[in-house]
């Protein structure tokens, strides 16, 4: 379970953002809703150990996230949390497979080519395994982002605005992939968006 309690944050000179308490059970699928600028990305960064809030507690399965040393936190993140960024963070000089091998080694996990095949296959991009990022379409790159996020079977899968730049058909396809991948990997899923089109796909919503 993940919980945040009495969390608030303000960037320098900016208004303080207070976040209502939130308890997320393992395997839940949540939509994080809020207008542009309301603090969705900030909250995701707080949840994922990227941004220490000025006040409050973040707990993940009994671990107080911000009590870890920065090295321990990096490893914790690499093993337990998969983040899907709006634009994929891939290394251009490495193939898709090599990028995924790197994600395994960042988490100090053994290289597991079978797992890479399994994930690329489930996302329908296995034939792109040995291609370089600039040889893929935007939609295929977004699937690689998802692959990179789930490769280490994280307990928590997070996506920040995964559909905002997509047309209706692709927005639904990406959401379906996220829901399917979180199910396959038994991961908790949190999707931040201001995209009203995706509201119906989720039963749990946290609004800012
Ligand atoms: N690094 C930063 N330094 C200062 N202020 C910031 C920083 N990052 C965000 N903010 C401010 O904090 C507030 C919340 O920003 P945040 O990015 O969390 O919003 P958001 O809900 O993700 O918006 P969007 O839907 O546009 O992505 C905004 O007012 C923003 O200007
Ligand atoms: Mg944002």
Structure notes:
- By secondary structure, the chain is an alpha/beta fold.
- Helices cover 34% and strands 22% of the residues.
- The chain has 6 helices and 10 strands; from the N terminus they run ββββαββαβαααβαββ.
- The protein has helices at residues 40-47, 70-80, 96-106, 113-122, 138-150, 168-184, and strands at 2-9, 17-19, 22-24, 29-33, 55-60, 63-64, 81-84, 156-160, 188-193, 204-207.
- A hairpin with a 2-residue loop joins β5 and β6 (63-64).
- The two termini are 21 Å apart.
- 36% of the residues are buried.
- Bound molecules: adenosine-5'-triphosphate (ATP) and magnesium ion.
- Residues 40-41, 160-161 line the site of magnesium ion (MG).
- Magnesium ion is lined by residues 40-41, 160-161.
Layout of SSEs?
Blueprint: E1 2-9, E2 17-19, E3 22-24, E4 29-33, H1 40-47, E5 55-60, E6 63-64, H2 70-80, E7 81-84, H3 96-106, H4 113-122, H5 138-150, E8 156-160, H6 168-184, E9 188-193, E10 204-207
Parallel strand pairs: 4-9, 4-10, 7-8, 8-9
Antiparallel strand pairs: 1-2, 1-3, 1-5, 5-6
The chain binds adenosine-5'-triphosphate and magnesium ion.
